[in-house]
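ZP: hey, is the heme C complex queued? I don't see it on the tracker
AM: it wasn't, my bad. submitting now with these inputs:
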Amino acid sequence: MNYPLYIFLIFGLSASSVFAVNTSTVDRLLQNYRQQGAHDFDGKAGEKLWHQSFKNPKTGKLHNCTSCHSKNLRKPGKHVRTGKHIDPLAPSVNAERLTDIRKVKKWLLRNCKWTLGRKCTAQEKGNILRYLQSQ
Ligand code: HEC
């Protein structure tokens, strides 16, 4: 086999396997949400929720997904309370995003509770994932 073709094959195969992992994590979660009765996941609705502000009943402060992740998903965020750096959420600039199912579940649970003051519904989570996936 000639050398360039060999390199091409290696790159091609590894790129497609990364992509496959990426798709299947979100797909598996969406499948999960469908089993809970959600359907027709809508990235636009996810985007709207992403930018929506929710008033915390105790402090009266407005909470928002962008409070920590910044308005531009391709840019790093900063934790609103601790000031800690948060890597960009957009899979287009951060290939690790939306690949680890346990991580996605854990943070959606935590972040929805903090931002909305309740758990997100399966529909809301699906919409958000569709939006994030497209970024
Ligand atoms: C109070 C700060 C904060 C807010 C507000 C917040 N997040 Fe996060 N989020 C984090 C931190 C911290 C992490 C974990 C660190 C990391 O992954 O870089 C994280 C991780 C995530 C992840 C994991 C992505 C992955 O695959 O690695 C998702 C998805 C996510 N957040 C979605 C949301 C959504 C949706 C909202 C709004 C409902 C939201 N976040 C609001 C702080 C926040």
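AM: back. The pocket of heme C is lined by residues 65, 67-69, 79-80, 86-87, 89, 97-98, 100, 103-104, 107-108, 111-112, 114-115, 128 (CB under 6 Å).
ZP: great, adding it to the tracker
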